[in-house]
Amino acid sequence: MRKRNWNRLEQSKFLKELGMLLSKGYSVSNALVLLEVHYRSYSQYPVTDIIKDLKRGTPLFEVLEGKKVPSDILGYLYFASEQGKLSFGLLEGSRILQKREHLKKMFFRTIRYPLTLLAILSGMMFFLIRFLIPQFTSLFNSVNLKLPSITVALITVLQVIPYLCYFILVVIFLLAILYPFTHRKKSPHEQLLLALRIPMLSNYIRILVTQFFAFQFGHLLRGGLSVSQAIQLFENQHYVRLFQDEALFLKNELRGGKQLDEIFRCKTYFLPELAQVVAFGQSNGSLGNELTLFSEMLFSNLEERLHRNLNLIQPILFGVIGCLVLILFLTVMAPIFHLFQSL
After folding, report:
1. What are the residues whose beta carbons fall under 8 Å from the beta carbon of 71, sequence distance 6 or more?
2. How many distinct structural domains can be found in the chain?
3. How confident is the model at residue 1 (pLDDT cuts 50, 70, 90)?
4. Do 74 and 221 have their domain in common?
5. Rounded to an integer, what distance in angstroms lies between the CA atom of residue 6 and that of residue 13?
6. Domain membership of residue 166 as a residue range
7. Most CB atoms within 10 A, among 85, 195, 316, 319?
């Protein structure tokens, strides 16, 4: 039987259980032995392979890199491992993966019913354009009448809609194919600045970038590292290349005499509030605590925004469906009323 890869929810479950065992005092090797027994009948969990790689001296986050765990989660594990808080990093990574999959399921659950209705309406539109409209046209020609102007306009709209949908799908398909080739050589900063030009996504991207940096940087400072040591850790990791380059830039700017909050104030891909939090944290000597608290607030805010916007998708789709139903109704009934009036 072919062995399938583990999905994100299974990865989240594995990270959570491993983190819980470590928090109870188990070593990584002992915890994995227990999990190997537990997952023995589940071939998608590569626990045995992970144990073999760890015995060769490979760090856990590097082992999981080869098991298709997302790079941002590996970043969490890297920073947590460097602080000696691997269990915390595993639990935090599990929580993020679980939230991400929950939002994904919520999105598909939200659009499933409206998309089914749209598919049914598409079939009705095809039947109307292919069979019913020609019958109306023949009927009106036989009695020397013209179709009502509203019917002609609605027929034009119905004929344009499929071509518009095809055009949008082709554009999306071409963008999906061409994007890797056109942006492969761009630096992470260039790719990020390009993504920030997308109006509906720019604010979410800023929140995500700021939240990740504030969380990791804050926990490093809370763990007793200095600002320069924390920046050095960001530079040493390779899982999130954006922050690897950012760390090098921060180090050069600090050596040039600039203040940390002043540097962040000039960054368009960070939220403006980050510079204010950094200034406040430095003034009262609790920069690590302030950044950690700020990152938690951003995470909650992001989750609320996503839930709120997902709840808007279904009414919008139902509004589109209502407009299509009205167009179909008028397309069919307008000629009938016009024909009765002409008799």
Report:
1. 65, 239, 240
2. 2
3. very low
4. no
5. 10
6. 102-343
7. 85
**φ, ψ at 121 (rounded to 5°):** -65, -35
Q: State whether 84 and 109 are in the same domain.
A: no
Amino acid symbol at 120: I
Closest CA to 220 of 243, 194, 197, 186: 243
Domain presence at residue 1? no
Interhelix angle for 47-55 vs 28-38, to 10°? Answer: 160
Question: Which DSSP letter does residue 173 get?
Answer: H
Last residue of a domain, one of 81, 98, 115: 98
pLDDT in tens, 239-271: 888 888 888 888 988 888 888 888 888 888 899
Residue 29 sits in the same domain as residue 161: no
Burial 30-58, CB ≥16 within 10 A → b, else e: ebbeebeeebeeeeebbbeebbebbeeee
Q: Is residue 317 part of a domain?
A: yes
Q: What is the pLDDT of residue 168?
A: 86
Say if residue 79 is in the same domain as residue 108. no
Task: Give Rg (Cα) of the chain.
Answer: 28
